Amino acid sequence: MRFLKMIIILLCFSPLLFAQQDNNPMGKTWVVFIENSDYVSFASLTGPTTDIELMKSSLQGYVTDRIIHLKNLTKQEMEDLFSTELRDLVIENQVNAIMVWYAGHGKFINDVGYWIPVDATLDNEFTYYNINSLRESLKEYSESVTNTLVVTDACESGPTFYQAMRTIPTDRNCSELFASPSRSSQVLTSSGYEFATDNSAFTMTFASTLANNRNPCLPIENIVTQVTIAASRSNQARPRFGTIAGLEDEGGTFFFVTKDQ
Hints:
The chain is α/β, with parallel strands linked by helices. Helices cover 33% and strands 22% of the residues. It contains eight helices and twelve strands. The strands form three sheets. It has a seven-stranded mixed beta sheet with strand order 2-1-3-7-9-11-8. It is globular, with a radius of gyration of 17 Å.
């Protein structure tokens, strides 16, 4: 399969991105970026490429074991990735924490969020990737994964995917991380209901918060606070944050751990 080959190439030939890290209290941590920009029926985008490169740059100061960057996925490829290929790699490599970041078009229909594959057809939701399928796939990752974070700068996830927090979350403390990390399953969306644009204030604020952090770690709640404030200042829809429905969550959170902690 194209996915599996691409991931193996990334793992074998990108040592600078994938150097193993042994000093992360979160355990073995992977980041998966999905960049959909060259669409057949939808407007093509330049923003996802810029956004993901910005995020990869901002993560350079943080401990990660793998960064996997996949581009222009069809619906079948997205389904295969999460249901089998990535799952098998995560379990085989005993990954403990994973962030999945989607950049591309999204859609929100009847309280359900969709990611738009590059081969999707306009106004045909059956050609979209229902992110409830992602949730069902992630349940099988729990053999090793204790901390899961899904970030989508595309559209609202929908109430069937997650349980939203009603207020800005309380900032977390790094002492929680170094004491005893608890299981977490979280999602953050930019909360736009329509298609993506090429100027993402959401990603810019997320990346800026990472880049300007001076603490030994950065919990996702602190980033949520900053992207929420930025959205309010620019009169944009408030980002939505919560726990993924159906996945085990013990009140923990996803921490980005700095390399010099």
